Amino acid sequence: MLLATQLMTCEVPLSRLLYVFETVVSPSHRIFGLVDTSVDTYAPHADRANWLLSAPGMVYLQVPPQVIRASVRLESWSTVPPASDAQWSGADDVEVELPGGDLALETIDGGQKEVPLILPSSGLYRMRWQWIFNRAGGPFTSPLAGHRESLPMPPGHEEKLNGADQYCLVQIWRTAASEGTE
User: Fold this and answer.
1) φ, ψ dihedrals at 58, nearest 5°
2) pTM for the whole thing?
């Protein structure tokens, strides 16, 4: 019986954190993004009622107009990372094709800042974006089209904010074309 349990455990792929990169960005025009450097970037014509705006090779996060500095942590994972039990101001997932696999953080005014985050290969990836706002700098208002309400600011993550207006955790993992949405 013990042997059968061990075999079943071995068949389940364990998610491993592969690489981490942390930096601070200054969003411009209430947006910043993660882009594949092999793609000519442009402002995606996306539904501005959503937090994440995406197109092949790029994902942008809309941010409140009060955000001047955002602390960003990018994580590359072997498979789906474990869910966080922390409270966030917001969270969203998106699937995006990354044809080159070399990434950069991008702002409209600041251009691209390459990030040394290594992805296993080019292809289809899933990204989980989670963010929190600095309670000391609030209130923050929604940047979404048709919304101007104050955003939730649960406690926690103060050490990760490190004086920034917003902290973002972006987790990235490769998906198979046949894999369903998580």
Assistant:
1) -160, 145
2) 0.84
